[in-house]
Structure formats: structure tokens, C-alpha cells
Fold each of these.
Amino acid sequence: MVAQVILKPGKERSLLRAHPWVFSGAIARAPKDVRSGETVAICRADGRALALASYSPSSQIRARVLSFDPAQTIDASFFEQRLSKALLERELMPLSSNAYRWVHGEADGLPGLIVDRYGDVVVAQFLAAGAEAHKAGIAQALLALSGAGVVYERSDADVRALEGLASTSGALHGELSPGPLEIEENGLRYLVDIRNGHKTGFYLDQRDSRALLAEIAGERVLNCFCYTGGFSLAARRGGAKSVLSIDSSGEALALARANWELNGFAGDEATWLEADVFAALRELRDRQRQFDTIVLDPPKFAPTAGHVERAARAYKDINLLAIKLLADGGRLMTFSCSGGVSIDLFQKIVAGAAADAHVEVVLERRLGAGLDHPVRLAFPEGEYLKGLVLRRAS
Ligand code: SAH
């Protein structure tokens, strides 16, 4: 018998709509001795079981649902089945890359688990107590299902602390070759630093938007927050004659340069600027520079809903500056990966920026993460990345 966690009356509503999180405030009582990551039954106030979930004693998200069938057995083969299903789904997706997200947490029925595949190397993040508790079995299944040579853990994301888990990373199976590994995406080659790169090494979620940029890039391109040059290379492939890329990280820029060379692009067509984008955009404005295409892909300005106001000001600031730098008919590809900022709010912020810049812009497209980052309608929190393509009306 699994331990029973009893909800307060009425607090079963979100579970009945298949939302997978149980917040601490919804719980009437739970046994004292439940371990971190232990599987528990989530029960209504009247005692009827609704779901099986992983318990996390120190997190606000006190339990994450593994199955809405209370009779399900949660063991190694349960995880293997979910992983296998997620892999099969990816194999049927038109991803144009040997690097993709294999598991996107809750959206794949595997709460707190992120798995990215880079060819022969599988990188996993165990970000919640349940995923952590089942790590050994999950790693074994990742190896068996993929036939990969290496399973590498990058559980060094800040969110681990909210679950009472320490930061950890390293090989779980096999050994990573020294230096970055190489992937291919839409005909471009990229070096990825699995050990120290952001997230699991690469922003796989922007694959479709990079492909779109390769179709619409103009001659003069500005790529802000360029990281390892993903959008810069895509722009060059799309026919850009000059690409100015800005990032505050020297390490990211070094890999970006290496990526540019790896693809045989001429060095004099690229400028790499180690700078703060907020300051650099002001300088470009003062020098009256103009660009045909601008990409703004900043880091998360609002990690939680509590930071939204400050984040909104930051988004407005950079978008206003970027809109002013657009040549007539030029395009801005602008993103927010803040979970607390909805697409509607983001569009309002950018509309405010355009109004303040006295520039008329046309919304051409809304963008999001690729198919390998699925969004369940029952779990809107999974839809963190949103983007807009705007054209300056001439
Ligand atoms: N567009 C990239 C991902 C961007 S991630 C891709 O597709 O691969 C965000 C990047 O912003 C990181 O590389 C980080 O180093 C950089 N960054 C964060 N704050 C910054 C700032 N104020 N100025 C410049 N770069 C910044």
C-alpha cells in the first residue's frame, strides 16, 4: 500500500482536469514519514484515490502526478514505457536534426525529467524529487532504449534547490569525449558543450525559429543574446551579408566563432561583440546603425510570476531599442522564455514598445518551441517559449 495524501475539500478540481501538480496548500494531511520522491496516492477529502504522484516534502509543488490511474504500478518498467513512448513520438516528428528533446517533463508524463539527445550522447536533468528517486532505473532505460554510448547528468539547474536537492552533474554511463561534441541541425553543424553549456548545452527549443530565420534573413543582421551563434549561423545560411552578434559571455562567443568557422563561413562577415545588450543597443542607436533583421532572444527575465513587472520593463526596453534600429521593411524576431509572461502579455509589451518608438509594425507570425517540446493543454505551464515576427511597415 502506498502512503495516502488527503486533499482539502474541493482541492481535487485541478487534478480532475488532468493538471499534474498538487500544491502544499491543497493538502489536508499526509503521513509524517513520507520520503522525498516516494510514490503516494493523492486522495479526495472523502478518501477516494485520484492519482499516483511523487512526493516532495520541501517543495511548494508537494506532489507531481505520475499516473491518473490509482491502480498503476510505479516501477522501473513504468518509466521505461513512458520513455519508450516519448522516443517513438520523437522518431515520428520531422525534426531535421540529430539533436532533440526526448523528454519534456510533465508534457511527456515524466514530471521533473528533462532528457535531450545529442546523437550518441543522452543528457538528463533530474529536476524534481520523483525523477531523482528513480534516477538509476531511468538512466538504465535511457541507455537501453537509445543504444547511446553516454548518459550524462546535468542536474545543476537552480530549481533543484526548491526540491531540497543538491546540484550534481557527471556521467551516469560511459564517458564523454574531451571537448565539445558536434551536432547537425537543418544542414548546419554546431559544437555543443555538454559539461558547461546552458541547459543541457544547446537551445534545442529554437530549432524551428532558426530554420525560419534562414528563410527570412535580410542582408544586415543583428543577433542579440547570441549564445553559441545558433541564429547567427542560420542568418548567414539564409543569405545575410553581415551578422553582428552580441553576448555577455566570452565562453559562449568563443564557441560561436568556432561554429562559424566549422561551417566554412568567412570570418569577415561576422562580428562578435562581448557586451551587455542593453548598453550595446543604445550605442548602436546613437551611431544610427540600421539592420534588416534583428533577433532578440534574451534569458528568462521573469523566473516566476513575482518578477513579471520588472521583466516587462526589460522586455519593453530592448524591444523599443531594436524596433528603432530596423530599416524600412526590416524584421524583428523577438522572444520571451519567461514562464510568467504569457504570449498575450508579451505581445502587449512589444506593442507598447512600437508605439513609444512611433514605428508601425506588422505582426507576421507567432512562434514557439518545436514539436519535441510538446505542450499539454492541461498543463499550460509547459508553454514557456513564445516569439513574434514583426515587420517594420515602410
Ligand atoms: N539565442 C540563443 C540562446 C540565447 S540564451 C540560441 O538560440 O542558442 C541567452 C544568452 O544571453 C546567453 O548566452 C547569455 O550569456 C546571454 N546574456 C544574458 N544576459 C545578457 C546581457 N545583459 N547582455 C548580453 N548577453 C546576455
Amino acid sequence: MTELLANHVAGRWQTGQGPGSTLLDPVLGAPLVRVDATGLDLPAAFAFARETGGKALRALSHAQRAKLLADVAAVLQANRDAYYAISTANSGTVKNDTAVDVDGGIYTLSQYAKWGAALGNDRHLIDGSAVVLAKDGAFQSQHIQVPTRGVALFINAFNFPSWGLWEKAAPALLSGVPVIVKPATATAWLTQRMVKDVIDAGVLPPGALSIICGSSAGLMDQLQPMDVVSFTGSADTAATIRSHTAITRHSVRSNIEADSVNCALLLPGHAADSDAVALLAREVAREMTVKSGQKCTAIRRVLVPQALYDSVAQAIGAQLAKTTVGNPRNEAVRMGSLVSRAQYDSVQQGLRQLLTQTSALHDGRANALIDADPAIAACAQPVLLGTQDPDGHALVHDIEVFGPVATLMPYRDLEHGLTLAHRGQGSLVCSIYGDDASALATAANDLAASHGRVHIVSPDVAKLHSGHGNVMPQSQHGGPGRAGGGAELGGLRALDFYHRKSAIQAAPRVLQALNQSAEA
Ligand code: NAP
């Protein structure tokens, strides 16, 4: 029998009372560990986080909370090798892909630690300047933000067991709000180990960080009006969360990051052998293959001028042909596996659906896996699809195949290209490729309306840009419409979600005292 991982709630480690769910190695099919949350006293768990954890965090200044983040980052850095081993075993990732998750999480924590230190001794945030409400300024209004007196519940997706926790926990803890994380079951091991290391190191106050692994049953029922919930996952589960009475009746604030059919757009006016085409091809291939395409930000649709359709297909295909797929423990492998056999089946099913309206322009599926049994391993080869009818073939704008799959499509003129980009109905990110600053800026302005982030790749940033799909803590993560309507990160803007805003109306001397008390 494999080890049953413990949950950390109400300030102590507690194992579930049921048999649990077994987590598997997606390449070898071997059982690894089990998780279970049966029988946990959830009301007590949430109350402890709210009362004990919340009170302790709110008593600290921003600079002191920032120090906590730096301490958490140091603990994680010291145990990094163990996380790489767990990620290889449970997520099937090669080292570069593990880095996106593990090192990306540590980097985000460190970044918030720096920003938080700069906030100094404040405990609440002054929001804008005071405005006059009465003659001679004798009575004024000043907005402030104070940490919400509740808990932040994170329900996370399987693809980022590390970064998915820390990118949310960093702004929450810095705001003074305790965290309860429920990782996706398939890859919960890494999240659990990281939380265990941080708790065991004693760097956070009791109740500041809790983890519940296994079923999500009953979690939403615990939420009270001052709590917040941040969900990352599929649009279907997002709809269930949104319709819960905690949100519909008690106004629990929610942030939803759901699926997204992101695109890359090559502007008109470039030759087949131009830098713009080369940069687009490289980025599309990279996005399709990093983490086996299991990134919510990955490029799913590629929009190019009609005349370049064939040459772009060839350029992307040439890049994909270099991708070796299989067991991530083998040095020759560049792309590991999907997180589970269930995800493999889901990707094949999505691919079959898209193939009813597209054809394969590059199809790696006949290639042999390296060091992996295709009957067991959840390894998927990259497939570039194409359609000459992007207007009529609606599925390509609708189905997110969460694997190494993207679809190339031609546009007639720029207006048509932009229209197709907007058909994602709200996405996390689009990238634009070209050289003319004015044309790039005009297209960015247009696409910003339906994309949480617009990433512009011109030859002068070829070696410097941060990558279409890489989520940087400095920039907003989240998109409108189908992408969930959420907004995370973006520097200190992320703290807004964990605060309550209030307008304080008073005499100037009281507002002055309020400003000073922020620094008490
Ligand atoms: P999922 O099935 O919706 O699961 C997400 C999380 O919700 C898991 O922790 C899951 O727990 C939990 N859950 C399932 N049913 C629930 C319910 N009724 N109430 C409360 N929680 C529930 O999504 P997934 O398959 O793990 O993730 C893949 C999807 O996430 C993709 O569509 C991808 O686009 C999206 N994603 C988006 C972002 C973003 O930032 N926008 C980032 C990553 C992924 P169990 O695992 O225990 O079922």
C-alpha cells in the first residue's frame, strides 16, 4: 500500500479516514502516494485559519509579511531537488518544464517579497488621495483598503501544482489573508510536499497555510461572506463554483481562471523568410510542446496571411520535428507526458473532434516514444492542424485541446485576422508578430479588448521577450469572457482581491491619524 499523504488543517497534520485516491506515475503507470480528505472537520479547519491564521497575519506589517514570503521561498529553494523528483514522477515533466512550475513559483514568491518590503510598516493600504466633501475641506473622504477578515480558498488545476499555489499565496499572505489550498488530485503530491516543508520549517504563523488533498466535497459550503475563493480549472467546474450559494447569496468574492483558446497573429506584409515568420514558428512550436501543451496560456490558434499559410506550416512543422517525446528521465527526451492517462484520452478525443473540421499539417503520432510504453505512458506527440475555412469551422475557436495541439488558419486581410482572434470569446493571451511599431500597436489596442495580456514579438526583442505563455508576476494574468473573467498578479494590483475597500469620511485630522496608523 502506498503512503497516505496527510492534510494540514486546524494547525495539525491529519490523514483522511477513507482509502483515498492513488496518484500515478503517468509514464510508468506505477502507484506513488494516496490522498484523502474523508472525515476532516471542515468547519473547524476554516474557523482556525480565519481566526488564528488571519489574526496573526493582520498583526504584521507588510514588510513583516514580505519577510514571511522570503522565508517561504528560501525553504522551497533548499528543497528544490525533491520537488524536481516529484514532478518527474507525478507530472511526467522534463527538467525545463519542471522549472516553469517549481522555479516559477519560487520566483513569484520572491518578487512579491520584494514588492511587499517596499510597502514598509503599513498594515492597510491608502487608496488614492482624500477628496473634499465640505467647504474649505473641513470634511473629507479617503478610500482605504484593509485585509479581508476571512480565508482565501484556492481550488487549483493539475497542470501547475507548485506555481498555481504560490502565485496565489504570495499576494494573499502579503495582504494578511490566510490560505487553504485544495490542489487537483492528480498532481497533489508536489503541492502537499511543498506545504509540508514550509509548515515543518515553522516560518509561517499557525493557521496561515492549510492544505486539503482529495475530494473538494463540502469546501465551498464552508465559505462565509468575508472569505474569497480563487479557482483555476475547467469552464464546467467554474460554472458549478459560480452557482454555489456562497457566491450567489453571500457575495463571497471569486476569481475564476478557466480555459482559453489563445492565439498568435502574424501581421501582414512579411516574406516567408522574414524574422517575423521565424519568430512566430519558434514560439508556436515552443508553446505547443512546453509542459506537453498543458498550459492555460498555450497558443491554440495560429492566424497568418493566406499567402503564407503553407510556408508557416512548414516552418512550424520543422520545429516540431525536433521534438523527442517519452520518458522524462531519458536525457534524449525533450517533451515528457501529459499528467494522466485520463488527460491523454481527453486530448485524443479533442483531437478527433477538431480533425472533423481540419487536417493534420504535422502529425507526430506515428513516431515512436523514447523509453516509454505507448500502451501505458500518457505521452502525446505534437500535432499541428490546419483549416482553410476558419470562418465556417467553428470548432477551432471553441475546443481547447489541453495538450500539444494547435491549429493554423489563414486570414484574407488584417481586419479578418483580428476578427478571428476575437472569436476566442475572451482569452488569457494573444501574441502578435511583426516589425512595424505602429501596426503592432494598433493591433494590440484592438486585441486588448478580449485578451488579458497582449504579447508583442518584434525582431528587436527576439532574445529578450519573456515568452507568449510565461506568466510573469509583473503582468496581469487572467482574461475576460470564456477565460473566466479573472485577474491575478500584475504586481501589487493582485492585493486588491484580498482587501476590502472602504471610504472613510471624516475631518482631515482624523484622516491624518488614519494615514499615520497605517504605519503604526
Ligand atoms: P477541473 O477538473 O475543473 O479541476 C480543477 C479543480 O477543481 C481541481 O482541484 C478539482 O479537484 C476541483 N473540482 C472538481 N470538481 C469540483 C467541484 N464540483 N467543486 C469544487 N472543486 C471541484 O480542471 P482540471 O482538469 O484540473 O484543469 C484543466 C483546466 O484548467 C484546463 O481547461 C485549463 O485551461 C484550465 N487552467 C486554467 C488556468 C488559468 O490560469 N486560466 C491555469 C491552469 C489550467 P479534483 O482534481 O479532485 O477533481
